[in-house]
Amino acid sequence: MNKLRSIIADNRNFLLCYGFFFLAGLIFLLTEGKAATFRYLNPYHYTLLDEFFIRFTWLGDGLFAVGVIALLLILRRWGQACQVLSAFLLSALLAQILKNVFSMPRPREFFLPGEYLYFIPGITLNGHASFPSGHSTSIFALATMLAIFEPNKRLNIFYVLVAVAVGYSRIYLGQHFLTDVLMGSFLGVMTAIGIRWLFLEKFNKYEILR
Predict the structure, then answer these.
(1) Cβ within 8 Å of residue 71, ≥6 positions away
(2) Which residue in 189, 159, 183 sits closest to 171, CA to CA?
(3) Looking at the 3D structure of the chain, how many domains does it have?
(4) pLDDT at 125
(5) pLDDT for residue 165
(6) How does pLDDT run across 116-166, given as a tens digit for each residue?
(7) What is the mean pLDDT of the segment spanning 28-46?
(8) CB pairs under 8 A, 24+ apart, for 59-67?
(9) What is the spatial distance between Cα 199 and Cα 128, in angstroms, rounded to a whole number?
(10) Which domain holds residue 191?
């Protein structure tokens, strides 16, 4: 437990900032409901914003996480690469399990024709794999691990803001509800902290895996 307390204490800036966004989102969701929060977060769409978020959401794609892992390997940061890979794989597995268990409709399936007008042709998906958001899970797991490894803890807030923006992109693009993003973010953060604790607890004696 001492190692877990140390992880939390060392990364309190990240966790406090994340906690603020999570609680704000949760209160908003509980107050307004699933459908209303989706509409409130998507009042207008513009071509430039569409293009920006279509590209920015890629940061939550698995290929981006793989690229980060590859970079860490090139830099010979073996322990960090192993931990990021472990957090990515475990969080992705948990997200996929929950998607299959709950099988909740994406916004395009949820709303009746004409109820929401800003779905983007060729981008917005159909189907019943909405909960939780896989991109949100991936980016928050990655952001948490990178924040943990960041020596300048003042930069931890930057990682939170990037992850939150990617999470919002999933709502803006009509792929997910706020519910999905919040759950995905929670999975990502908790998985990353758990993996970091496991490595410190079980593999700390192996310098290469620290």
Answers:
(1) none
(2) 183
(3) 1
(4) 81
(5) 98
(6) 989 998 888 888 989 999 999 999 999 999 999 999 998 999 999 999 999
(7) 94
(8) 59/139, 59/162, 59/166, 60/133, 60/134, 60/135, 60/136, 60/138, 60/139, 60/166, 60/167, 60/169, 60/170, 61/135, 61/138, 62/88, 62/92, 62/138, 64/138, 64/142, 65/138, 65/141, 65/142
(9) 35
(10) 2-209
List % helix, strand, coil for the chain (3-state, nearest 5): 75, 0, 25
Q: What is the Cα–Cα distance from 148 to 129, expressed in whole angstroms?
A: 30
Q: Which helix (H) or strand (E) holds 32?
A: helix 12-32
Q: Which amino acid is at 83?
A: Q
Token readout for 146 is 């990178």
Contact indicator for 88, 65 with CB cutoff of 8 Å? yes
Tokens of residue 199, six digits: 């490595």
Sign for the CA dihedral angle at 156, 93, 172, 124 comes to: positive
Long-range CB contact pairs, 3-10, < 8 A, 24+: 3/197, 3/200, 3/201, 4/193, 4/197, 7/148, 7/193, 7/196, 7/197, 7/200, 8/193, 10/148, 10/153
Q: What is the pLDDT of residue 3?
A: 85
Show Cβ contacts of residue 174 under 8 Å, excluding neighbours closer than 6 positions.
42, 106, 107, 108, 116, 118, 119, 120, 123, 124
pLDDT tens readout for residues 38-92: 999 998 898 999 999 999 999 999 999 999 999 999 999 999 999 999 999 999 9
